[in-house]
Design brief:
Number of strands: 6
Shape: globular
Largest sheet: 4 strands, antiparallel
Strand content: 5-15%
Distance between the termini: 19 Å
Length: about 375
């Protein structure tokens, strides 16, 4: 046996954790405390009135529901995980999910598509979705797969934690829920990897339940409709967006309405270059009205949030190749040493060449010593 090894240095970019703010501590006397309480009460009252003006009145709700659903029925994209019984599209050659597909099987399609679509464009997801369904057409089929098989099918989509959640979720549905998805969002939220957004999507789209959902597209549409200037990532702002989404969602066609808002955000009310002239609800859009009056731009909403700078991690990497020789000749195949990453953290459970974290300015000899 002959072994050859190389050492290399690589850098991985990871999001840097935000540093939590610190609260100032200190005592105040009774008079100051009393005055502060009075000011706080006034501020809260003013804030409450301001929040109320952001809500939709009943007439706005009805108008928005009607306009969005009519636009969606005429303009929605036909996708393999989507079906619309009220569709007015007549294009040939486009195939969506079968109309007669049982709700439980349809829920599986919606779930897989929603997980794949996180941080990934629709055009990219379609081929991966079709391949996935050809291998694991039901949740029971997926539950019997291995993590290596799932990762192999997922290769190229990135964010492998999503693939892990799909497999864990499938095993949970089969082993703990008898192979059936809960119809309510609360029950769906207990499945590994399913948060409030995905739970609302499955519940409303697959089972027709009256559930709202909030994702990046919905946040953008709502922020522009009500000209919301607050940071959308704050707790108060998140709560407001969910309240507005709950107020708007149509009772009879909850799933179609939720998809209509997301579709509008993805195709018309886009982050850059929104097509306001083609928007079916521009008459109710406060950001558009402000723009028409020369008071800023639609692009001012939602406000841009500064992201934490990336964090660099420097690694010393060893590539160990095993070459087998027979009668002085190299064999047709060689082998490489791989190690599996921990079950938690970055790239959890994936396989890689052996590596260790080193300092950015560490000498070359020190890096070699650490890896060997």
């Amino acid at each position: 046996l002959m072994r050859r090894s190389w050492c290399a240095i690589r850098a991985i970019v990871m999001p840097k954790a935000a540093v939590p703010g610190q609260k100032r501590k200190g005592k105040v006397d009774g008079k100051v405390e009393k005055k502060r309480a009075g000011r706080t009460k006034q501020v809260l009252s003013s804030s409450s009135d301001e929040e109320e003006t952001k809500r939709f009145d009943p007439q706005e709700v009805q108008a928005l529901r009607a306009a969005l659903l009519d636009w969606y029925d005429r303009n929605h994209r036909v996708l393999p995980w989507r079906r619309n019984k009220c569709s007015l599209k007549t294009e040939e050659g486009e195939k969506g999910a079968p109309m007669d597909l049982p709700d439980q099987k349809f829920a599986y399609l919606v779930w897989v598509s929603e997980i794949m679509l996180q941080q990934t464009r629709v055009a990219t997801v379609i081929d991966y979705f079709d391949k996935w369904m050809s291998i694991w057409p039901t949740v029971q089929d997926l539950a019997s797969a291995t993590q290596e098989q799932v990762n192999d099918c997922w290769t190229g989509l990135g964010y492998y934690r999503r693939a892990r959640y799909l497999l864990e979720g499938a095993k949970y549905v089969v082993n703990e829920l008898g192979g059936k998805f809960p119809e309510e969002a609360a029950g769906l939220g207990k499945i590994p990897g399913i948060g409030p957004y995905t739970a609302g999507a499955i519940s409303s789209i697959a089972f027709g339940k009256h559930e709202p959902l909030v994702d990046g597209n919905v946040i953008r549409v709502l922020a522009r409709l009500r000209a919301l200037a607050e940071d959308p990532t704050t707790t108060a702002s998140k709560k407001l967006h969910w309240e507005l989404a709950t107020q708007l969602v149509d009772v009879e066609r909850s799933g179609d309405f939720n998809q209509a808002v997301m579709e509008l955000g993805a195709t018309i009310c886009t982050p850059k270059g929104p097509l306001c002239g083609q928007c079916p609800i521009r008459g109710q859009c406060q950001a558009y009205k402000r723009q028409q009056r020369g008071q800023g731009s639609v692009l001012d909403f939602p406000p841009k949030v500064e992201k934490a700078p990336p964090k660099e991690v420097h690694l010393s990497l060893c590539i160990l190749e095993e070459i087998t020789r027979k009668n002085g000749k190299q064999a047709a195949e060689t082998r490489f040493l791989l190690v599996q990453r921990p079950e938690g953290g970055l790239l959890a459970g994936l396989w890689e060449f052996p590596s260790v974290i080193v300092g950015k300015e560490a000498p070359k000899e020190e890096k070699k010593r650490l890896i060997t």
